[in-house]
Amino acid sequence: MSLIAGRSPIKIILFALLLVTLQICAKAQTDPFKSYLHSVPTVKQVMSEVNSGEGSSAITTRKFTFNSRNNINVVYAIMAFPQRQGIYPAMLILHGGGSKAEDVAHLVQEYASRGYVAMCFDMPGICNNGTVPNSSGPWKLRKGPLEVPRFDIATGLENSTLFDAGVSGLEAFNFIASQKNVDAKNIGITGFSWGGYATTFLSGMLGKRVKAAYAVFGCGFYEKATFWVKIIADLPDSIRTPWLKYFDAGRRAPGMKAPYFIEATSNDTYYWPESVKATLDAIHGTKNHVWDTNFNHKQQPAGPTMQKLYFDYYLKGLGQPFGSAKITKEKLLADSSKQVTIKLNIPKGVAAASVVIYYSEPTPKWQTRVWIPITAALEGKSYTAVIPAGLVKKGVNYYAYVTDDRTVAVASDMYNALYDLEHQPVN
């Protein structure tokens, strides 16, 4: 029987309006990035092409603009690649918030000289609008602090400038994957700060198309423990819920198929340990991390070398993977001190150079923490360290930190000494 049979014209009209409303609501819940997952942008203008270097390190650097988001935006990009003919792995390199493509151009060229096709671009909504003369679009005209339009989806999900950033990221990835000199099965993504967020975000959406991902202090779960906690808390639920669903990198993390490494900083102003852990917990596959100890939103000196070793292994099959460190046991001693056991997984041919426990006493803000090392001793196949009773009583946070003879550093999860390993406070 028809649902509208026997009903008055007014009821029929109201029923029709209800159906339209439901359709609009259903559409509003559609992932706004879905139609761009395989969108390959067109080049608008090649601005320059320069050859540099010699021999096997000789590269070509091309600066150009591409059309993005169905030609609504124009995005400036820099791509560099070896002059020698061949098929190469590729790298997408993402700048940080308030930065621009030119700021990471040296990395693009450096990776190209080492046998990669590499690309960076001005990320709309993330770059500094006033320093990107070659990029344009409605996002560039948004007024006020950059944080405001990033969280503005009151009139639709596409209204957030992070939508422009995400679409340009997907299209940049698809563009580099479409190049004839690129091995599309071996593409990595790395980025810094908001670029680290975008590394996590894009890798989650692109899934198995990304071979390896390395974020430098940028993750997800913005509502949990980040610089943006209050901004998100102050949003009405009708805005907060869809923003977190579609724009938070932590919600995208379960879709990640690539090995993922995050180089977080222990004292970071923007991405705090709780959100870093939540992001790692959301990833189902290979994941690893380090805390750049006593650094605040600044990469440790060994970081760039670590990135190169990481991508050489996953994209070229060279060298060895990173090791890992886990705190596997703890024992409360007679004097109320706590002995912790650290188990290392170090690849063949690599040796541990340093194993320590870093601890810090609680302070109101992570940025004011001072992390102090306790040297661990080798006992059989594991390492042990003792946290003094006074520190246990204070409820210090602690983690294992391991450096190998390649200068690669990895860390364990972070713990509170007042609790046992299986019953840590819920963040």
Low-confidence stretches: 1-5, 11-27
* N-to-C order of helices and strands: HEEEEHEHHEHEHHHEHEHEEEEEEHEEE
- Could you tell me the CATH topology label of the largest domain: Rossmann fold
- Proportion in β-strands: 25-35%
Provide a count of the helices: 11
Structural class: alpha/beta
CATH class of the largest domain: Alpha Beta
- Helical proportion, percent range: 25-40%
Give the N-terminus to C-terminus distance in angstroms.
53 Å
Report the principal-axis shape: globular
Write a brief caption for the model.
The protein has 427 residues and is α/β, with parallel strands linked by helices. 26% of the residues lie in helices and 29% in strands.
Topology:
Blueprint: H1 9-28, E1 43-52, E2 59-68, E3 73-82, E4 88-94, H2 105-113, E5 117-121, H3 147-150, H4 161-177, E6 182-192, H5 194-206, E7 212-216, H6 229-233, H7 237-247, H8 249-252, E8 260-265, H9 273-282, E9 287-292, H10 303-316, E10 324-332, E11 338-345, E12 352-360, E13 372-375, E14 377-379, E15 382-387, H11 389-394, E16 397-404, E17 409-411, E18 415-416
What would you note in describing this structure?
It is a single chain. Helices cover 26% and strands 29% of the residues. The chain is an alpha/beta fold. The protein folds into two domains: 32-316, Alpha/Beta hydrolase fold, catalytic domain (Rossmann fold); 324-423, Immunoglobulin-like (Sandwich), CATH 2.60.40. The protein has a nine-stranded mixed β-sheet, with helices on both faces. Strands 12, 13, 16, 17 and 18 form a five-stranded antiparallel β-sheet that branches. Strands 10-11-15-14 form a four-stranded antiparallel β-sheet. Strand 2 (59-68) and strand 3 (73-82) form a beta hairpin.
